[in-house]
Amino acid sequence: MTILETERLRLREMADSDLDQMAALLGDPEVMRYYLAPKSRDEAQRWIDWNKRNYAEHGFGLWVVESIEGDFVGDCGLTWQTVDGAREVEVGYHVRRSAQDNGYATEAATACVQFARQRGIERLVAIINPANVASQRVAVKIGLKLEKRVTTNGFEQVVYAAII
Ligand SMILES: CC(C)(COP(=O)(O)OP(=O)(O)OC[C@H]1O[C@@H](n2cnc3c(N)ncnc32)[C@H](O)[C@@H]1OP(=O)(O)O)[C@@H](O)C(=O)NCCC(=O)NCCS
């Protein structure tokens, strides 16, 4: 099911049939370099399952991003997270290595901000590893500002946020 369209991209619900592409994306050590470890195929399936639950329970989740022509780009969307004990909606994004630096994450995440606004979500955050400069650039380009540093499970993270 298509959720959002932009000039170059389509965001649609993730399905079990996306497992090969999602496992390649989340199993890429470069894409996952700011995470604890790349994800196995089983973990990629659990990622898909988690997002299917997100769609059913909240009406949003991380969606597959593909070009209008149908080429897989990555994922992007909205998920509930707990930050400093508070429930927050996070905008998240992962772009396959060969598609990075084309403005795709910014374009997809901008559409997600509009989606959130239309759904009455008042505040968005992005929780980012301080060394992840590209992700912080995307956060800034979609209108989020550095708000605070938090420590989650012993790892320092920066929180970008905005009232939308
Ligand atoms: C973060 C990520 C999604 C960005 O995707 P993208 O489609 O390449 O993003 P965009 O092209 O819209 O913008 C990237 C910006 O980061 C900048 N950038 C990219 N790599 C960079 C680096 N190593 N150092 C500094 N800036 C960098 C680009 O120049 C661009 O900024 P600009 O428009 O001001 O020039 C992508 O790098 C990715 O998938 N990373 C791994 C997964 C990840 O970390 N996700 C976020 C978790 S919080």
* Ligand catalogue: coenzyme A
- What level of helicity do the residues show? 25-40%
**Number of domain units:** 1
Tell me the number of helical segments per DSSP (H or I, 4 or more residues long). 4
Gross morphology: globular
Q: How much of the sequence is in beta strands?
A: 35-45%
How is the CATH topology named? Aminopeptidase
Helix-strand string? EEHHEEEHEHEE
Question: What profile does the largest beta sheet have?
Answer: 8 strands, mixed
* CATH homologous superfamily label: Gcn5-related N-acetyltransferase (GNAT)
* Mean pLDDT value: 97
Question: TL;DR of this structure?
Answer:
The chain is α+β, with helices and mostly antiparallel strands and 164 residues long. It has helices spanning 19-26, 41-58, 104-118, 133-141, and strands spanning 2-5, 9-12, 62-67, 72-83, 86-95, 123-128, 145-152, 155-163.
Can you walk through the features of this model?
The chain has 164 residues and is an alpha+beta fold. It has a single domain (2-163), classed as 3-Layer(aba) Sandwich (Aminopeptidase), CATH 3.40.630. It has four helices and eight strands. The protein has helices at residues 19-26, 41-58, 104-118, 133-141, and strands at 2-5, 9-12, 62-67, 72-83, 86-95, 123-128, 145-152, 155-163. Strands 1-2-3-4-5-6-8-7 form an eight-stranded mixed β-sheet, with helices on both faces. Strand 1 (2-5) and strand 2 form a beta hairpin. It is globular, with a radius of gyration of 15 Å. The mean pLDDT is 97. Coenzyme A binds next to strand 5, helix 3 and helix 4. The site of coenzyme A has 19 residues, from strand 5, helix 3 and helix 4.
